[in-house]
């Protein structure tokens, strides 16, 4: 049978959409392991603890109570109300239940946010290095990603830098704090500068606060809480990192109209909501008193300090990540090409990391080390670097 190229091709909107390079790193690790090597793994991107018991118990309860039928597509009222309370109290975002939608992880919130704001050829300003899927999500809308180097903004001022990279096509700013992969936590003054710029240029802000609970230095400021920002910001949250729930696929977004209608449409015609028992389980995260978040943060802080000191000691200079769970040292001493540097670390020291170039051109010359791993793994990896670098 012939396969005509005019038929057997994907729709153009998928042309610029790629897959993550991190898959290549994982394949190399599996090869090494199959050959009997011990690999010190720093390439991961998820919590190394388990989901708290009170959330798992709420899931079991929901199942035994047969809470397994269709729920409203935008989410059960109880969960949306509890999240609106959390947003008002913790994030200082003046949200009501109508401004909250329950989604399948942070990814679906970000997917929706770009789908509902970006037309073909619209440009999105993205602080860089940046979380790789963002470029693919923007490409999926046939929009264009314009990278704004975070270092340049911090050196020259945010207003001057954002002005330099914006054009008449600029439609939105992607604002991720704490930042994956650099661990940067934008300050209140920086959030205010971005907010002034967005208002002066009439731009939408897509805020990504996936790591809001992992801040070690400074404060987490939700940009939607600033004056005049609630209306022009779509903020995406997830339980993945905060509650070690990556596999549950539970996130939420907060936005006002017209964005919320757009988000409801993208949800309705994709997954038509999140699994009902999962939503009842998530309710426990917001309504059961627990010291999980703070205990977790303190544990990460200890691991950050250990990894940071070790990296600097072995001659891989690293700025202190103020948030998230990644260190992003300069590895040009090993190789200016971060893919080569990652291969060298893996071959010589069996230390697995992610090449900085995966996070865009401004990540080149760096490697991403996750400290979401055990203290023992960090000790063993550093020890191997000391002996083999
Ligand atoms: C910056 C950032 N945003 C959003 C997400 C989305 O997470 P999820 O889809 O698991 O909720 C991640 C996950 O790695 C992330 O690093």
Plain-language structure description:
41% of the residues lie in helices and 13% in strands. It is an alpha/beta fold and 389 residues long. It has two domains: 12-50 and 292-388, Alpha-Beta Complex (Aspartate Aminotransferase, domain 1), CATH 3.90.1150; 69-287, Type I PLP-dependent aspartate aminotransferase-like (Major domain) (Aspartate Aminotransferase, domain 2, 3-Layer(aba) Sandwich), CATH 3.40.640.10. Helix 4 (105-115) packs across helix 10, helix 7 packs parallel to helix 8 (188-201) and helix 12 runs parallel beside helix 14 (375-388). The structure holds pyridoxal-5'-phosphate. Pyridoxal-5'-phosphate (PLP) binds at residues 45, 105-107, 131, 176, 180, 208, 210, 238, 240, 246, 251.
Strand and helix layout:
Elements lengths: L21 H13 L5 E2 L11 H12 L12 H13 L10 E4 L1 H11 L7 E6 L4 H7 L4 E6 H7 L1 H8 L4 E7 L11 H14 L2 E5 L24 E6 H4 L8 E4 L4 H10 L7 H12 L4 H22 L12 E2 L10 H12 L1 E2 L1 E2 L11 E4 L4 H14 L1
């Amino acid at each position: 049978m012939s396969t005509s190229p005019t038929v057997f091709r994907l729709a153009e909107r998928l042309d610029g959409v790629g897959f993550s390079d991190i898959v290549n790193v994982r394949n190399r690790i599996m090869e090494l392991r199959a050959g009997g090597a011990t690999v010190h793994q720093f390439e991961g991107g998820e919590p190394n603890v388990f989901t708290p018991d009170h959330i798992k118990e709420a899931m079991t309860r929901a199942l035994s109570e047969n809470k397994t039928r269709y729920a409203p597509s935008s989410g059960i009222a109880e969960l949306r109300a509890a999240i609106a309370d959390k947003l008002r109290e913790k994030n200082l975002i003046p949200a009501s239940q109508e401004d909250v939608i329950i989604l399948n992880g942070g990814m679906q919130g970000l997917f929706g946010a770009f789908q509902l704001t970006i037309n073909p050829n619209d440009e999105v300003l993205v602080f860089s290095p940046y979380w790789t899927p963002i470029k693919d999500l923007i490409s999926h809308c046939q929009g264009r990603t314009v990278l704004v180097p975070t270092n340049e903004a911090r050196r020259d001022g945010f207003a001057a830098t954002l002005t330099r990279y914006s054009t008449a096509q600029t439609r939105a700013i992607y604002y991720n704090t704490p930042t994956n992969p650099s661990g940067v936590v934008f300050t209140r003054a920086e959030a205010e500068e971005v907010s002034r710029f967005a208002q002066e240029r009439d731009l939408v802000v897509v805020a990504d606060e996936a790591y809001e609970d992992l801040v070690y230095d400074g404060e987490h400021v939700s940009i939607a809480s600033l004056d005049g920002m609630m209306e022009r910001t779509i903020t995406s949250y997830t339980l993945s990192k905060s509650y070690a729930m990556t596999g549950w696929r539970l996130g939420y977004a907060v936005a006002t109209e017209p964005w919320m209608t757009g988000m409801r449409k993208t949800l309705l015609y994709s997954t038509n909501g999140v699994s009902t028992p999962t939503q009842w389980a998530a309710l426990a995260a917001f309504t059961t008193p627990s010291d999980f978040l703070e205990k977790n943060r303190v544990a990460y802080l200890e691991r950050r300090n250990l990894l940071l000191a070790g990296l600097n000691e072995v001659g891989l200079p690293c700025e202190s990540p103020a948030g998230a769970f990644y260190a992003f040292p300069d590895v040009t001493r090993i190789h200016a090409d971060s893919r080569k540097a990652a291969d060298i670390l893996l071959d010589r020291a069996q230390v697995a990391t992610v090449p900085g170039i995966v996070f865009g051109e401004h990540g080149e010359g760096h490697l991403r080390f996750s400290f979401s791993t055990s203290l023992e793994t960090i000790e063993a990896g550093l020890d191997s670097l000391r002996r083999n670098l």
